[in-house]
Amino acid sequence: MASISKEASGTWRVQFTATDGRRRTLRLGKCPKRDAEAIKRHVEALQSANISGQPLPRDTAAWLASVADSLHERLARAGLVQPRENADDTTLGPFLEKWLEGRKEYKAGSRTVWGQVIRNLREHFGDDRKLVAISAKDAEGFRQYLIGSKLRDTTIAKRLSHCRTFFNAAVDAGTIASNPFEKVRHRAGDPAERRAYVPAEDVLRVIDHCPDTSWKLLVALARFGGLRVPSEPLSLKWQDVDWERNRIVVTSPKTEHHPGRGKRTIPLFPRLRPYLERARDSAPKGAVYVFPEELRKRAQGPDGWRNANLRTRLRKIIARAKLEPWPRLWHSLRASCESDLARDFPIATVARWIGNSVTVAMRHYVDVTDADFERAAAGSDAPATQNPTQHLHAWKRTASSGSPEAHEKPPFGAGVSEPCVSVHNGSVEPMGFEPTTSALRTLRSPN
């Protein structure tokens, strides 16, 4: 909080505590009391924005852009704002470069996304376009430019959101009076349009055509463990697998900057165990990471997890399995895992295992499947899906009795090793992870 007081000379001053804990004084000179009280309110708003990192209130941003250079300079000396640049001389290209340069502490993936939007802005407006010359009409023109670029609706909506962030920074610095992108919006698309539920039977077929143990495990971790590919599987260490307690500690590079979200613990699901066991048996002595070190080094560059080229290889494997590739190959596997788990466990529990929020899970991950409709059509007396482990034990007891069910496939979710013991049919050469198209570059999966 700030306070105002009047000195014997008749001048007003505002006192406040800065973010470093020191008491600062802003001398206003002689002015009406109501003006001094208004400045006090804006000083408090500046304090709050500096502490919370949130944008300034609109009235304070407009006031800051309109104040005289002398007052703005005093605000800057007091540590409340950045020194004012000549708004007439501030151009788009240098401003955006400086903004991005000041975000080095953020993830490489975030800076890459911001860089894409900055490239769009510079291509459309030009580097020499003055910020004060960009109007709301111009911002709408930029939205039409994105539409003409054939981008998806969700991508357009997100890029406009980033534009509002950029220009809010210019407002906070007093470079422009208002944000031209403030009211420029675009309706996001339906995430389900780019997602597909991948049945377990199809995934097992794909796994049968994987060239080696590591690829089988990678696909299984995505579909039956819900891990983000490539960052989470390639961060997995053998010490993270608790064989006795049936748990896996998953390190999540994508969410590690959020307090308490750098790691999560998931069950060692029955369907994952055989693939992990086979990888453990074939791992070199003293191996720290579950996946080969050569792949990890190639996939983790200075700009984060990239150049792994896993989408291209998976697409080829799916084609050799004589299946049609589904949208967003790795994300759909992860989403299908969450859809299955949501039938058997509370959604809040499932969201913690998968590493997202309930809101994100319902919008971007969980799907209604054909099996759900069949259960509903069977009536209220239809049995609910059992716990996969319990279901497996029941199937084993039935199968061992010599009944006809002994020749049926085990239930979905059962931790059986049939997929692991299938003999490679020779349709895919055992080339491991090394991509055949090394010139292709695949960015980190957004799932």
Distance between the termini: 42 Å
Instruction: Quote the average pLDDT.
Output: 80
Compressed to H and E, one letter per element, the order equals EEEHHHHHHHHHHEEEHHEEHHHHHHH
Strand-residue proportion: 5-15%
The protein's oligomeric status is single chain
Number of helices in the DSSP assignment? 19
In total, the number of strands is 8
What is the gyration radius calculated from CA atoms?
A: 29 Å
Outline, from the CA principal axes? elongated
- Describe the main β-sheet briefly: 3 strands, antiparallel
Q: Uncertain spans, ≥5 residues at pLDDT below 50? A: 384-447
Give me the secondary-structure category.
mainly alpha
Helical fraction: 40-55%
Instruction: Output the strand order for the largest sheet.
Output: 1-2-3
SSE blueprint and pairings:
Blueprint lengths: L2 E4 L5 E6 L5 E7 L3 H20 L5 H9 L2 H9 L14 H10 L6 H18 L10 H13 L4 H20 L27 H9 L4 H13 L5 H4 L6 E2 L4 E5 L11 E5 L5 H10 L10 H7 E2 L2 E2 L4 H11 L8 H16 L2 H8 L3 H7 L5 H8 L10 H13 L17 H4 L26
Antiparallel strand pairs: 1-2, 2-3, 4-5, 5-6, 7-8
Helix pairs in contact: 4-5, 5-7, 8-9, 9-11, 9-14, 14-15
Give your account of this protein's structure.
Helices cover 47% and strands 7% of the residues. It has 447 residues and is mainly α. Strands 1-2-3 form a three-stranded antiparallel beta sheet, covered by helices on one side. A three-stranded antiparallel beta sheet has the order 4-5-6. Helix 4 packs antiparallel against helix 5, helix 9 packs antiparallel against helix 11 and helix 14 runs antiparallel to helix 15. It is elongated.
